[in-house]
Design a protein that fits this description.
There is one protein chain. The protein has one helix and ten strands, in the order αββββββββββ. By secondary structure, it is mainly β. The protein has one domain: Lipocalin (Beta Barrel). It has a ten-stranded antiparallel beta sheet with strand order 4-3-2-1-10-9-8-7-6-5, with no helix packed on it. β7 and β8 form a beta hairpin. It is globular. About 10% of the residues have low confidence.
């Protein structure tokens, strides 16, 4: 009886791990030469620290804008439920994080109010390409659409 029970536990553990998707955890530095970034304004942080534990995902993004360094800390749940994080200028960013059907990529969709200018929608798709983290990012608002591919190397 021990062998079938042990096998069942192993199968259940494997199913639970595969349901979570890939593990994005680590400290990742932007590789500008491998990335396809916008010339005038890039959404790419210079470093991302990812902590993934079960359905909890914490992203710490270190970026520079107009020669000012800043950090964005976002917390998500990987179950598709809406998560609320601080936006800019006292707004709230509402996001959902959903695994692709094959669990090989994670899509985070965020909506940020822009006052009289409506709302900005940001879509980030996270996936691993070998030892690199690739984030395909697009943003859409009343000011237009932008997209870029950010490539990060694990530190």
């Amino acid at each position: 009886m021990k062998k079938p029970f042990s096998f069942l536990l192993l199968v259940l553990f494997s199913l639970a791990v595969s349901a979570q998707g890939i593990d994005l955890s680590g400290t990742w530095k932007l590789n500008r030469s491998l990335s396809k970034l916008n010339d005038q304004f890039s959404m790419a942080p210079k470093e991302i620290i990812v902590a993934q534990n079960g359905i909890d995902l914490n992203l710490e993004k270190h970026a520079t804008f107009q020669d000012q360094d800043f950090t964005i800390n976002d917390k998500f749940t990987l179950d598709g439920k809406e998560c609320i994080n601080p936006g800019w200028q006292d707004t709230q960013k509402k996001s959902t994080a959903v695994w692709a059907e094959d669990k090989a990529s994670l899509k985070i969709t965020s909506k940020i109010p822009m006052g009289d200018n409506g709302e900005m929608t940001i879509i980030e798709v996270y996936k691993l390409d070998g030892n690199k983290l690739v984030i395909e990012t697009s943003a859409s608002s009343s000011f237009g659409d932008v997209a870029e591919t950010q490539v990060f190397e694990k530190q």
